[in-house]
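Annotated sample (chain length 221).
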Amino acid sequence: MAFLTELKSDTKFIIAVLVLCLCNLLIYKTILFHSNKNPDSFNGEFPSQIADWIAKDVLYDENVIAALNPDKTIYRNYYKNENPAITLFIACYNTVEKADLSHSPIVCFTGQGWDITETNTEKIDIGSIENNIVKINQIVQKKADTTMITFYWYQSKDRAFNNRGLQKLYLFLERLLGKSEKNAFVRLTVTIPGGMSNGKAHILLDEFTKKLYPVLREYFI
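Output written by the structure step:
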């Protein structure tokens, strides 16, 4: 009798453990493989002025926008005094699944006939916020007599990545914790005018990035 009682008790325990495991499996399957039914969205207006830089909207290339399929697009030229305009392009996505739609601008630039003459990664010290080192990619591209410098990265709510795979891993972990999946592809470009060196144009982009990044972080909140 004692054996039967112990067996029944063990059976109930095993069944309880199996049910609990099944419930956990269903929960994690739902989290990992289904889009957020009520995702955070980018509803606010992105500032048209960043420090002393004033923006004017840029016309979209409909084919590019269709390929990227963002939930929201920000495409502007920012001007300051006699400096060349800095073009800001942000493709905003509400979920981790849509992060796959963003890609390196090297693909687009080479497809448009630009020669990529330099690629590297950089760390920019923002200095005013938590996690103040921003990791970005930089490319230099040329077409005929025109030279451009581009900064780009992949942004989550509170972190910048120069690698999209790392960004996606981070976003999956955020989903598991029930946090925001909002993300974006961010690109800054400056066309170097005659008489300006590549180094000076690079410094200009660096300075604008330092002003932009806290505003970008705030936009994700």
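Annotation: The two ends are 63 Å apart (CA to CA).
Annotation: Residues 1-34 form one domain.
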